[in-house]
Description:
By secondary structure, the chain is α/β, with parallel strands linked by helices. It has helices at residues 14-19, 29-36, 52-63, 71-74, 84-87, 108-125, 137-147, 153-157, 159-171, 184-192, 195-210, 257-266, 273-280, 294-302, 319-326, 331-341, 365-372, 394-411, 416-427, 431-445, 455-466, 514-530, 535-539; strands spanning 41-45, 95-99, 175-180, 216-223, 240-241, 283-285, 288-291, 346-349, 377-383, 386-390, 474-478, 481-482, 485-486, 489-493, 500-508, 545-553, 556-563. It is elongated.
Amino acid sequence: MQRKQQLQVGQSDFRNMIKANGYFVDKTLFIKELIDSGFHVLLMPRPRRFGKSLNLSMLKYYFDYREKDTQALFEPFKIWQEDELYRKEQGNRPVIHFSLKSGKSTNFETSKEAIYLTITNIYNNFRWLLGENILEKGEVRKFNQILLGEATPALYELGIKNLTQYLYRHSGKETLVLLDEYDAAIHAGFYYGFYDEIIALMKSILGSTFKDNDALYKGVITGILRVAKESIFSDMNNPGIFTVLSNSFDDVFGFTEEEVKEMLTYFDYGEDFAEVKAWYDGYKFGNTEDIYNPWSIVNYIALHDDGFRSYWGNTSSDDIIKSSIVKKENEDIRTHIEDLIQGKTITKQIDQNIIFSDFYQNKELIWSLLMFSGYLTPTKELGFDTYKLRIPNHEIKILFRKIILGWFNKDLNIYHSTLLKMTQALTEKRFPEFEETFQKIMGDTFSYFDTHTEPERVFQAYVLGLLGMMSDHYIIKSNRESGKGRYDIMLLPKDKSRYGIIMELKQIQKEATETRTKAALEEALSQIQNNKYYRELEAQDIHERLDIAIVFVGKEAHLRHRFS
């Protein structure tokens, strides 16, 4: 009886995965598509943790002529059923495979040294060439200078190109160059203030490696974004750019719905499919709908007893995105994010060439960054690079709520303990305590919204943000139809033994009398009852509820409640 395959969480080495009897979602037709492509250099940016490193490792083991007994790794998979033309390429040429992840640092000198060290390590992997009698005396000297870390900057930056030429002499075959995380140092350079320097370095390395290099078979470059700075790729000859908006290679990264169903069935979790889809599906790459986040799928299956969790959000800090959202002057961005959290789409122009130096001058670039980084996905192209965007799934919705909590904690000085105290009081029928904490938070921070042209909308978005930390136990909804109208906010408990919560928000003039304020509070409570907003709770078999009226009189919040 064949031993059941096991998940290899975090394994990015293809050979190790297969030899360990690991479960591999068959992406080997990527090899065929690469061979068939007419492009000499291919840039394939995708969100983090979508299988880029594993797929590049797969390419290495398929093509590399120095790797022994690798044919057996591929015989069980789809590529081996293809034409002999593709099988002949197996184990047939040199491969240089490396990542520039180590170049991510807080200053340029450290980043540059890490990149140069990466080139030294590559040369160390090929030091056997020194014994093959194919290098000239000057080339041996340069090779050793890189090995010893004593090369000039120019020699380091020409290092990969020179190595492809040495390998061509040895094998008679052009080299496949696989570069992973090419933009890691660029992101850091922008965030920490050495962007121009790192761009110049990367332009030199990429240009020398991939332009006019007769010893190059193909170059495959992965990262998160297509970075443009006087075009970093301008020194290459028309590279193929295949982003999440491209139809070619659209199912290579991420899991398709068919692949996820097959995987769940294999591990006896097929009955979980509907909920898995809600949590981890929702991406659209090119023409392919229903792309799933592979990191989250693998972790969900491996940690099945822990239930549904947000796995992808824990894999990176995304400093640029978070810092942009929490900036006080970016209030419009947060308002759009609240629309997205509520399940709405927004329409934005997407720039496929990210110029980081334009980032803080052009706030709209945040939407391009969010989409290419995997926080949003396009639903429809409207022409002229304009797309409808939405949050892909529940996992990312939770992540957005956490970002908003970060905004409260960082810029508004509302600490986690205060929010926790407030939300616990809300869910434990300690309404006076909830009211007191809520009013204190509002009193401390409401001047933040003095100049907004739509205060009611901001009030609602702000309250939704305050409640965001309850999303583990409640489904938080707003502006949805129920009964005879639209409620403002509903908290639908995931545990049916808890009570539901409905909030109706109103704003009246700050000069309003106490009598007018009381009338507005009563009107809000009556609106919940008369319009039967509770119908959605009843449909979910939740019959106990807390109705809350919140009336904003200028900046002051007045509350009244009723248990039903």
